[in-house]
Specification:
Blueprint: E1 2-4, H1 18-21, H2 34-39, E2 46-50, H3 58-61, E3 67-72, H4 75-86, E4 95-99, E5 111-116, H5 128-137, E6 139-147, E7 158-168, E8 171-183, E9 186-197, E10 200-212, H6 216-225, E11 228-230, E12 236-237, E13 248-253
The structure holds S-adenosylmethionine.
Length: 256
């Protein structure tokens, strides 16, 4: 059994995940929502994705953008993204993948679209102001910013249960998860990947990490504090029609 732990600084909770990440997100409606982030891409935009992971969103945004910068802190997730891009001669000239970590970052350039899918849950609320300031500093006037994981549901608390099963050749992969609520906006999450070969358990790998909840009111206030205001209506968006939609916000930097 191998265990990845939470980044209280040292280890990467995605170190063992990339091999399974897309396998358990093969369904069209898997989260984070690819159509939500892709459809928001301003045509011909210079875009920045924070935490692109294996590139599920990036590969859908890039064809609509003029350029796409991907800033990812996990070496293994970056490796999968780079391997996918290697097979895409159409995208190679315009997608850049760099090592980098929110909240504070300086890429020395500005973008028309900055987005984060499935990333905010990794960011402690105390780091949000620094993250939002960095996003605002990297947006051109009129630029758009979208992020999911801004939601009202309670922090998860559940005993281990099977979330999904996938077959690949003679192997069956089973993903289970459990969560312990540590506070109103914080849980400790454990995901376990079990591999069965012809019915026999041959590998068990677990990952533990903290899971932060972000609420719409403070998020929208802190975005407004750095000059990012609702792009439409109250700024809250439904990323999917699903009942467990991971609520999103879409904001814009004021044009001069
Ligand atoms: C749930 S995955 C989402 C990946 C991708 N955006 C998608 O929608 O499939 C979260 C990704 O964000 C990355 N990540 C988490 N916190 C980050 C941070 N502070 N800076 C940069 N990347 C981060 C993780 O390494 C991981 O690849």
């Amino acid at each position: 059994m191998s265990i990845g732990t939470d980044p209280s600084g040292s280890s990467d909770p995605y170190a063992i995940t990339p091999g399974y990440y897309d396998l358990f997100r093969a369904r069209e409606d898997a989260l984070p929502s690819v159509p939500f982030f892709a459809d928001l891409t301003p045509p011909g935009a210079d875009a920045l994705e924070i935490g692109p992971g294996t590139g599920r969103l990036a590969l859908a945004v890039a064809p609509r953008a003029r350029s796409l910068f991907c800033m990812e802190r996990s070496a293994t997730m970056r490796a999968v993204l780079i391997a996918k891009l290697a097979q895409r001669p159409d995208l190679r000239p315009k997608v850049t993948v760099v090592e980098g970590s929110a909240p504070a970052f300086d890429l020395g350039r500005a973008f028309d679209y900055v987005y984060l899918g499935g990333v905010l849950e990794h960011v402690p609320p105390s780091e949000r102001p620094a993250l939002f300031a960095a996003i605002a500093a990297h947006l051109r006037p009129g630029g758009l910013c979208a992020m999911d994981m801004v939601l009202r549901m309670p922090a998860p608390d559940q005993d281990e249960r099977v979330m999904d099963e996938q077959d690949l050749g003679e192997c069956r992969y089973i993903l289970s998860a459990s969560a312990r609520r540590l506070g109103p906006d914080l849980s400790r999450l454990r995901q376990t990947y079990r591999t069965y070969l012809r019915g026999e358990l041959v590998a068990t790998e677990s990952v533990e990490r903290l899971h932060h909840m972000h609420r719409p009111e403070p998020v929208l206030k802190e975005l407004a504090d750095v000059g990012l205001h609702p792009a439409e209506g109250d700024g809250l968006a439904q990323a999917t029609p699903l009942p467990d939609d991971p609520g999103a916000v879409v904001v814009r930097k004021a044009a001069p």
